Amino acid sequence: MRRRNIKRPLFLASSLFAAIFALGSDQPSVRVERTAAVGPRLLEKQTEAAVIRDYLQAWQTMGVALEQNQAGLLDADFTGTAKEKLTGTIRDQADLGIRTRYRDTSHDLQLVFYSPEGQSIQLVDSVEYAEQILDHEKVQTTQHVHARYVAVLTPTEVRWKVRIFQAESE
Amino acid sequence: MRIRLTCLMAWIGLVLMPLALAQSSGVHLPKSVEAGNAFSIQTTGNGNAVLYIVGPGQVLRRNVQLGEATFFGPGEIHNAGHYLVVLVGASAPENGAFDVTAAHQAATLSFLAKPSRLPIDLHDGISGVVYLFDAFHNLVLSPAQVSFQLSTGPGALQTRTALAHFGVAWTKMDSATKEGSAQFVARIGDVTSTRVIQQVPGNPCHLVMTARLSGQRLAVETQPVRDCSGNSLPDGTIVTFTETYNGGESTVDVPLKHGIARTDMPAYSGAKLSVATGVFVGNEIRWGKE
After folding, report:
1. Which of A38-52, B39-53, B59-73, B101-115 has the least mean pLDDT?
2. Tens of pLDDT along A51-71?
3. Which of A3, A7, A119, B243 has the highest CB neighbour count under 10 A?
4. Res B170: pLDDT
5. Inter-chain contact B17–A66, Cβ cutoff 8 Å?
6. The CA-based dihedral angle spanning residues B6, B10, B12, B15, taken in that order and rounded to the nearest 10 degrees
7. Could you tell me the residue ranges of all domains in chain A?
8. Which residues of chain A does B95 touch, with a Cβ-Cβ cutoff of 8 Å?
9. Where exactly are the structural domains of chain B?
């Protein structure tokens, strides 16, 4: 009886992860913390909305790119160091026959810096996501991750792109 | 009610699962590793297994012998981030995670100074933003003091310090009262990055022309065109001479050369001559009799 009680939550947790990946199109929950000041420049509502929209889209893009091992998909939402590092990861994955699935389930965002000339904006994201590792199509693990990411976005012709994307130790 | 209880148990299980795995795990991980540093992962048990270290920043796979330590050399894991670890052997996979952090000391600075050219004597007219990176181009997230210096010549130095939060520090500086190039330096420890800012004269304050007859035409010429601080406006600045006569108008745009603009225009008796640069209007001359 005792053994069953231990296994049951684990089984349910695994089922939940499986459901998260099966229902991959579900939108993550997003909370944005209001910040009185984000540095030297006033942050307009439209800018804030655009940055958040493009950052969340970057997560979707990253998920697809890492799952399909297609670095070219990153072009739309990443640039600079972030793109180079993710491209390197995809190259390594492809060489090893590994794919990874990332499904973000919630974001707790705080915009922390907007540069004086509007050339960069920085945010901190307390994010939860499910991560699944497949080696030659065999699922090796599926885990729930809670991490804090620091991202810097820069404006391009039509959208904000992620230039720095880095998890930090909480 | 039963469904709610089941969901609650599932999420409790979710929260406790990593803890439970950590306790029973056959893989012992460091809590965090500095990017680029060597480290090892100790496993327990017997036989062969495959060790995965996976994150958005990097992916590694190693065949390991259980019960032995697996070593990772300097620079092998160099991208900061959160990494999942999976050990797959004969028994159930063992999971864990650890963080790779950026170095505490910045190795390079990404320094953005704006604008590259601006008028003199502008309060907070120059902005500097610096991002701190380690040797592997990870953002250095530890708080650090960054100093900024703007030097515009002998004895003319502005200094500011700013604390970097989340790897970024910024400042604002005034442009100098004298034209010329300025060195804008960001520094942390021994690491510096320099940008050059061109400070050009401000709006014109002094625009006076003279006219004299030269053959059948009028030779018009400005005195040296200066801003309110006495700096000559840069060569190439356009000065517009306008002559109106009998309802007609002719205009000549002339670039400054050695601070002076000169041209010739028709010599109509009674013509009105005016001069301007940008929105600043100089003197007027009425030529000859009306």
Report:
1. A38-52
2. 999 999 999 999 999 999 999
3. B243
4. 96
5. no
6. -170
7. 26-168
8. 141, 143
9. 2-101, 108-200, 204-286
- Looking at domain B2-101, its CATH superfamily turns out to be Immunoglobulins (2.60.40.10)
Q: What would the pLDDT profile of A123-163 be if each residue is shown by its tens digit?
A: 999 999 999 999 999 999 999 999 999 999 999 988 999 99
The mean predicted confidence, pLDDT, of chain A is 87
**Cα(B119)–Cα(A81) distance, integer angstroms:** 34
Give the count of alpha carbons within 13 A of B235, CB side only. Answer: 2
**pLDDT value for B73:** 96
Mean pLDDT for all residues in chain B: 88
Q: Is A19 on the interface with B (CB under 8 A)?
A: no
Distance CA A48, CA A122 (A): 11
Q: C-alpha distances in angstroms, A100 versus A85, A140, A143, B44, B46?
A: 15, 10, 11, 26, 28
Tell me the C-alpha distance between B283 and B290, whole Å.
19
Sorted by sequence, the CB contacts under 8 Å of residue B182 that are 6+ apart come out as B126, B150, B151, B152, B175, B176, B196, B197, B198, B199
What pTM did the predictor assign? Answer: 0.79
Return the CATH class of domain A26-168.
alpha beta
The third-level CATH classification (topology) of the domain covering B108-200 is Immunoglobulin-like (2.60.40)
Q: Do A16 and B10 touch (CB under 8 A)?
A: yes
Minimal Cα–Cα distance from B138 to chain A, Å? 8
Q: pLDDT of B251-289, one tens digit each?
A: 999 999 999 999 999 999 899 999 999 889 999 999 986
| The residue to which tokens 């007859």 are assigned | B213
- CATH class (in words) of the domain with range B204-286: mainly beta
| Alpha-carbon gap, residue A119 to A152, rounded angstroms | 10
What strands lie across the sheet with B27-28, from one edge to the other? B27-28, B39-43, B69-72
Omega within 30 of 0 (cis) for the link into B115: yes
